[in-house]
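Q: A reviewer asked whether we had any structural model of the full assembly, not just the individual parts. We don't, so I'm hoping you can provide one. Inputs are below.
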Amino acid sequence: MTAQAPILIIIIPLIASFLNVIIGLWRKRLCYPLVIITLGLSVILSISILNTVIIQGVIHYRLGGWEPPWGIEYVIDHLNAFILIIVSFISFTIAIYSKRNVEQEFPEKTVYFYTIYLLLVTGLLGITITGDVFNLYVFLEITSLAVYALIAIGRDKAPLASFNYLIMGTIGACFYLLGVGYLYIATGSLNMADLGRLLPDLYHSKAVLVAFAFFVVGVAIKMALFPLHVWLPDAYTYAPSTVSAFAASTMTKVGVYVMIRIMFTVFEPRFSIVMLPSTEILGWVASGAMIFGGILAIAQTDVKRMLSYILIAEVGYIVIGVSVANRMGFTGALLHILFDAFTMACLFMAAGAVMHKTGETSIHGFRRLHRRMPLTMAAFSIAALSAIGVPPFAGFFSKWYLVLGAIDAGKWIFAVLLLLSSLLIAIAFFRVIENIYFAPSDHAHNGVGQEEIVRDETPLSMLVPILTMAAGILILGFFSGKIVSAVIQFTVPGGF
Amino acid sequence: MEAISSIKPLLAVIVSLIAAFLILITGERARNLREFWTILASVVKFAIVASMVSPILEGNVLEYTVISILPGLSLQFRVDALGILFALTASFLWIITSFYSIGYMRSLNEHAQTRYFACFAIALSATMGVAFSANLFTTFIFYEIITLSTYPLVAHKETSEAIKGARRYLAYLLGTSIAFLLLAIFLTYNAAGTLDFSNQGILAGKGSNALLTVIFILFMAGIAKAAMMPLHSWLPAAMVAPTPVSALLHAVAVVKVGVFTVIRVALYIFGIDLLSRLGLGTALAYFASFTIIAASIIALRQDNLKLRLAYSTISQLSYIILGVALLTPSSMVGGIIHITNHAFSKITLFFCAGSIYCAAHKTNISQLSGIGKKMPWTMTAFFIASLSMIGVPPAGGFISKWYLALGSIEAKEIPILAVIIVSSILNAAYFLPITYKAFFEKQDDAHHEEIKEIPMVAIPLMITAIISMLIGIYPDYFLTLTKEVIRLR
Amino acid sequence: MEFIIGKFNYWVYIILMMIGFYAMIAKSNLVKKLVGMNIFQTAIILFFISIGSKKGVTIPIIQEGAGDAVNQAVNSARYMNPLPHVLMLTAIVVMVSTFGVALALIIMIFRKYKTLEEDEILESLRSGEEN
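A: Here is a predicted structure for the entire assembly that you could use as a starting point for your response.
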């Protein structure tokens, strides 16, 4: 079982997604347990994979026994194993959360929703696990197609937002594919490790340079890196709550993962950092994302849209950690991938819970919700504080590493911008938090005094995932030292 | 000096966190049980803190590492004389404030009392955390927890005025701490490679003079909790909070955490030698002097009693900073012991303001004519505490001013001596008229409703008033602790 | 001249790609955008296929008896490289699915707004907000 874990973690959700259609035709309500069991299995598998990696080192799994570079190879080191756990755990938690949301928003589409949801998870896990650049493209498109469909289920402008996303996403994917093509011309190989061996001799080839540029731009579109983020706010605002929570917390993170793989596994750090000033450029772009995302977040009146802009800023944080190209910064980026996945999941799920209860997510609609749904709002506040980067919540610890990384690299300006952006995000979030807890009630002026607000907490199947994430945010930060020494320190590319 | 490993500092921090949890669970249904948790936690906390005093007096420090966050950077507690002095004051006053709070909140029938008591407990927990932290990293974490946990307390009334006040409170405290304090900490870590407090300071010889000066300025700007001008205006804004909050948090815990952090940074990060070499001590002293005088003058013009007390606090806090900034042994003793002195007398004054509000619903000084006859205990306590503030012997405030004056002479800073004298006169000018009005002026309107002091509110303020007097008469206990701080240097 | 003619396959793919790209970005009609997307993708397919081909070679099917028992090694210079073509089979599948999803979205959009012109849709959204 353990030996086959790398393929099982892809196959199980893939098969389950088709099984789901069949079972769904027979008994609709069996879909949900099937999804939970499937994703529960992938959590277990990913934990076992991480365990194996920690004990035995890198896993090489050859599909069908074909030798690389001819066959497709799955390579799992500490980096993928880390991302795998994040993706599978978040997908599992959000699947639990999805039940009431699906029942309320689109009960007639339950079966198809879960089918596509499983495909989406398959795609993300596949991107993470594969060691083959073309295979990665296929998984990238599986993911994207699934998410286009899921977003289109949403309300209002959702189909249009999804269409715009599709156009942008396709451009991104095609750029990636072109990058693959140019690398293939230059080397004749598609295997990442193989490419890593062959490329150093070819670094001066124009084709390789072009390939690198296409890769980075393509992936930047996929992970909504400023200024290629325009598709994101609309898409995540109008998508169903479950979908925005899942996409926001995992898709951008997996995008960053792909970028790290391309920059530091397929190409060498010295190419990405020294020969091309790509990290320098990325650093400035990411600073733009942090500041711009923060400012636009303040300008929003809808909480989900505000969260989308904050997500863009958070992507900037992660990229800046990668771009300063040193041990501290990289560690911070990976920690932030973990913490931000939890934070975004928690925030979007909480916003979804408000949507579930009140039918809207405008900031005004959050007024005095702490009386109606105290636990959900407490979780929201915790996650918000973590996103701002206030101790003792998790976000603070990853930002600590990020700023130290920027300072180590001598990039003071990035350190200052990181703090500035934290302030912007703080303003954005405290607008909401103030509304939740202290907004004067609408009826105060009639002299009625305290209006009676009945406590009306989020249903349990939604509340438990939200609280799990909040608890994670509270606790994980203190263990960041342990996480770094157990996993992250092995992921730092050589030469940092 | 010996470092003893002990879990007590962690327990002292955690006790009130557990209490906050229990308070939230108990909620509004069983009010007596909920209040019992507060009282229990405060007593237990004080007992734990008090039990740490004797090893400290023997010249040891207690250490406990909770968890390591980064290599060489951990959540770590280290209890020394300075920390225990502050913790002792804060945890003792929490017991008294708890009783006072219960009386105050119940007599006014305030809403959201569960949130109030829970946040209070968390704030105290973080105060202990700052007092006991072994490095700047730990200090910063608890510093921010205090800001966050007191924010709901400031906004407690939920009126638009309270929300505005809370917004300003948060903007100042969170904004400066993220923009300046955190940056200063990063710079320090980058320059020195560590953030551990050390008796000699850690920054000496670790950077150019210009860099060190910039770091120092960033620190001073970042610790807005110390309420030095021009970053003081959050404190008057925070006066919209219920009076017990103003009393314990905005006269003792929060602002003293700010001052305490300033002391930690000045003495344990920079060190005396470095500060005097860079001339930063003197610069800080003059800055503090400006705050002392300016805040006192503003206080003169306030009619709202709590606002006048707030400006008085701003000015008194700068005494502490002044004492440390002069960098002479006497002035440091004066400054550090003023933490305790000011705590006891200022909390008394705030308690009195709360007592007046509870019993007579008056907030302005101009309304207080003749109230001394109706509330003799309260106004007597007010008078005693005013004397301590002014620095009249034998009240406690005299001790600190005496040492401060000695220190300014030792440092040959005669202008500073003048500042101390002028500000004492100003103190008298804004405190004594209140007592005069209360006891010797006739009340203007005859149909005065019945005013009665509430025992639950009046007894605590009597206790603190008496203690603030006792510190002046028997100063040895605190002086020994304070001199322990100086001796180790 | 050699630069243009000798590499004409690349020029064709670049021109096609730019046409598609222009249509995706600049056209306001959603179907035209989609057509542009298709051209864009097809250009990439052409690019891949052309890199697999060589002059004067045959399809990569080894005939029986092409090499004797001793000389089993295949003379790769005589055959096209099949791998890019195989990759494109997969890519075509992906592209067709994308196209399908996009068409489905367009139908949804049309049902909702009764038009496929982007500016008209935005117009109707704006007037919807005013109401």
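A: Points you may want to mention in the reply: The first helix of chain A runs from residue 5 to 26. Confidence is low (pLDDT under 50) at residues 444-450 of chain A.
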